[in-house]
Every structure is written in C-alpha cells, then in structure tokens.
C-alpha cells in the first residue's frame, strides 16, 4: 500500500498546516532503482517548523560521546521561553564512527541531524507522510514512502543520477545517505587495555596523551565534553577530577592527571 495518512485523513493533512507551504512537494526520491522512496529531508522539516513556530526552539544535547559513537538528544519547544521540561517532543539518535567514509568522521553531526529529524516528526512535522504499512529503515531518520514502479518510470526523465552512490532525486538536489556502522564494526576497533577499576598509576602506564584528550566526561556540568577541551576552557576542573572527584572512574582521574602533568610538569613533580 503506497497511500499515506496525508491523502486519506483530512485531519492529518491539516496538522501544522502553513498557508502557502506544501511540504509534500519538497520530498525527494532516494533508494535503489526498484526500491525507491519519497523522503522529507530534515532541513525541510526545520524550515516547516520555523514557518509554523517562528519563536520555537530545537534544543540539542550530547547524551554520550566516545571515539566510536555519539548519542544526541533533541527536544522541540514551541516557544523559546518554555520551561526546560516544556518540550512537546524529544528523540535520541546514535551514529558510529567510520574512517572509511567522508561521512563517518562526522558521526556527531549525523546523530544530531537524526535526533532533530525524529523529534520534529514526533511533533507533527513529517509523521504525516509515514507509510501506513511501511517499516523503518535504520539508515534513515525515519521511514520514507515507497514509490510504485509506475511512479519510478514517470519520474525517470527528470532524475539526476549520483554515480558514486546510485541515489537519485526528482528535484535536482543530489542526496547521499549517511552511512551507519553497526555495533559489531565499532566494537572491532581497538579498545584501550585499561579499565576504570584499575589503579590510577596502572592506567597512567598505558594511557596515551591523545586518549586522555579525547576522553568524554560523563558527569557534572562538563558532561559530554572531551577532557582536552575542558583543559583549555577550565584547567581548574582537571584538579577537581584528580582531588575532588569521589566516583569510581579511575580512567577519568588518570586522564586528568596525565593532562595536568603534560601542562605543568614542574608543578606535578613537586
């Protein structure tokens, strides 16, 4: 079935309606020759949201980030003055690092885009076009609308091909789907030999300076930031992680110690 709620239910087609703006005409065609879908890009959803709620806000927050993956939360507020818990929808998205692709190194940006797209869909900016019986494709923000073979043939004269990706569009905009690396592939990457349960001195004997700089902090006001950035912005926080922190994470203590020693070797030795 290729009909959507947008065609079959007037109440759905009227949801978040903006006079003079028809989002369905801006949907683009993605997928292989015989398995194409119409899809509403996140950029168009954001534009739609701005037109409907010019004082609205989309708040994005890094929930977790490592060298292998990033998890981002997006919250949609109808007014930027709404309280923190006054969002109308929210969503999380995870994307993995992949050094074999131009997109894989941008896994944080990809997670952000996916989270925003899903949150906007939940707020009624895109969910109207969900296929009634369709499944969600894990490589898209959410499900697109399957295009019938008849529609494929009728649109083929207008299409442009992207030879590298085999993806086409009917409106002159080329599209490259963001790659997603599976959990097994991410886990296969080299992991540090130390653990948070080890003594700080043992961790320091194995940890590199780059590992310390890229360690994401999972607590407090610096949650989500990498330790190297914190060292530049607020060096005093490193001392707190070494002396004031009472949690079980000795990796954090060791990384802070390593950065402190690198920045002030003479003070660390005294």
Question: What would you note in describing this structure?
Answer:
This protein has 270 residues and is α+β, with helices and mostly antiparallel strands. It folds into two domains: 5-169, Enolase-like, domain 1 (2-Layer Sandwich); 192-269, no CATH class. It contains twelve helices and eight strands. The protein has helices at 5-8, 10-13, 42-52, 107-122, 149-155, 183-188, 200-204, 209-213, 227-233, 236-244, 250-263, 265-269; strands spanning 28-32, 35-39, 57-65, 69-77, 89-96, 145-146, 160-162, 167-169. The strands form three sheets. Strands 1-2-6 form a three-stranded antiparallel β-sheet, with no helix packed on it. A three-stranded antiparallel β-sheet has the order 3-4-5. A two-stranded antiparallel ribbon has the order 7-8. The relative contact order is 0.12. Residues 132-139, 148-189 and 265-270 have low confidence and may be disordered.
What is the compact description of this entry?
With 270 residues, the chain is of the alpha+beta class. Helices cover 34% and strands 16% of the residues. It folds into two domains: 5-169, Enolase-like, domain 1; 192-269, no CATH class.
